[in-house]
């Protein structure tokens, strides 16, 4: 994701009229100067967004840790008249930048004394502004939700786990997987949660003494219940209660000696740092790069050095040294064996992940049998992450003592009585499966209401969890509106939005849209490669999404598209003409390729075919055109780590909410719920998990086009156009606010 950040900072800098320099080889290049500091133009950062690592290099630098080294660095910056520095790196690099900034005045005075620069030059460059972007695969920087590179590292880890699971299953093996994270267990934790690992070691929470017996007992239990494999995930910095390291080989030998299982160790190592960046990382870095430039432009002598971060889907600025301080506090708490506190300082979502992992990894007998029955179904088109949500919902329901049924084939299956009770182990191994294991249909309840009611009565269902797209929301709305006729529908209902289109009201993100964006992005990367080879070629790529332009907009940002046509951002023939001229100009430069995305229903008359004909005839002699319709490959594939994790959490939160509501409306041995808040959509809004009554959401829904009336992601289109070199006004750009990072802010329930 670093390249996407370099690209965004460079282009935004040029866009606002600044001179932008790229410094090669990190601080080493800053100290050495010379050819390591080069002015950049728009094309310097072309075609790098899909590359892993960083094209401007990075190096650990001894010299910069000394004052003499920083003096040379200051001189090199002053020579080029650079007074704004954007640093992309981990906490070490960022702390170094802050020291450099605090010494700046003194360093310039020294340069004047030595006669290396004049007093006038020192006056002109009297202030150094710095802004940081956190690039670290460990996600170990406190205060930031996600650091650049974390999501891509999780993609690499999940690819390996998926591959290993198949071989382990065939050979009935146990695998010990060691992932990176010397001081931070984030990667191990999320990959453990997203793969349903049997046991997990993280530095923040060492296992209780005597863990060896407990672990072996658990692994043996899983096998005796019919599982053919065990996966154990261990962070490289794992320790026991006394602070002694736990190595992967120690764990392996333990399993072999005690249980005699065929056991293998796989150390993932630097695989996790490589590979092509995920869509999330590309979009995150692009947003953060734009915000970093704005932060530098708006800096005053009084603003502290800040890091740019994302909170939910909003950009924020955080004082650099506050983040560094809390990050050091975590390490100190771990060194002093205050482990509970270390987990809390990592922030609320880390704590949530850890608690949910412990909840779902092993069956704990329910305290008592509850009187309630829940039914779970999938509705609409398949979306990745549906199975993860079903799995966690089933398991949490069982933990609470409910009777849990699953329904095949959506509302149609509910009307035909395709309903069966499930146990804890029936959903083992579902996490990594794409599509819908239960089967899903688009049928709406109004076509078979009588029969649905009959089965709800027959199975005595008091809670309905519907996981699906717009039809799931519309279907539950129909059931609620039929409550007047059928008392059986006065039950608790919840919708988990799961659709690649991301068009369900009540949530910023639907389950499955992250996987779909990654699938579309991978295809577009290949298409771009083909266009780069043939030269002077423009590809017109059609994406899915119904009327919702989320998929094409976000994919467009992730692949650096020249334009993305969507229904929500109306366009006319004049806009199309401007786009063609823009591409004609682009062909005169060194980048002789174009990529235009079109959402399938963005315009009634300007179809993909029409665009192809228009571009072909207008571009005649300058470029030729090709069409690519991505189609159903956007629905398929293994779920991304985000969707596995998100599905798991939504499943847990939805069932906990349903249980609470069922208790509230349980009177004299029966459930009767007819208030608006007894049927909700669960979703992520800004950064909290919210439950919105379907009857309320009805008021903000455009049913004809199956869209929410207001969509947050439309403000991303500004970035898409700016990065594609269109002249746009920045008056609509919303700058991030400065927020503080303290123990209190970290403990706030983020929801996700």
Automatic annotation (TrEMBL):
Gene3D superfamilies: 3.40.50.450, Phosphofructokinase domain. It catalyses: beta-D-fructose 6-phosphate + ATP = beta-D-fructose 1,6-bisphosphate + ADP + H(+). Keywords: Acetylation, Allosteric enzyme, ATP-binding, Cytoplasm, Glycolysis, Glycoprotein, Kinase, Magnesium, Metal-binding, Nucleotide-binding, Phosphoprotein, Transferase. Pfam families: PFK. SUPFAM superfamilies: Phosphofructokinase (SSF53784). Catalyzes the phosphorylation of D-fructose 6-phosphate to fructose 1,6-bisphosphate by ATP, the first committing step of glycolysis. Negatively regulates the phagocyte oxidative burst in response to bacterial infection by controlling cellular NADPH biosynthesis and NADPH oxidase-derived reactive oxygen species. Upon macrophage activation, drives the metabolic switch toward glycolysis, thus preventing glucose turnover that produces NADPH via pentose phosphate pathway. NCBIfam families: 6PF1K_euk. This is 6-phosphofructokinase type B.
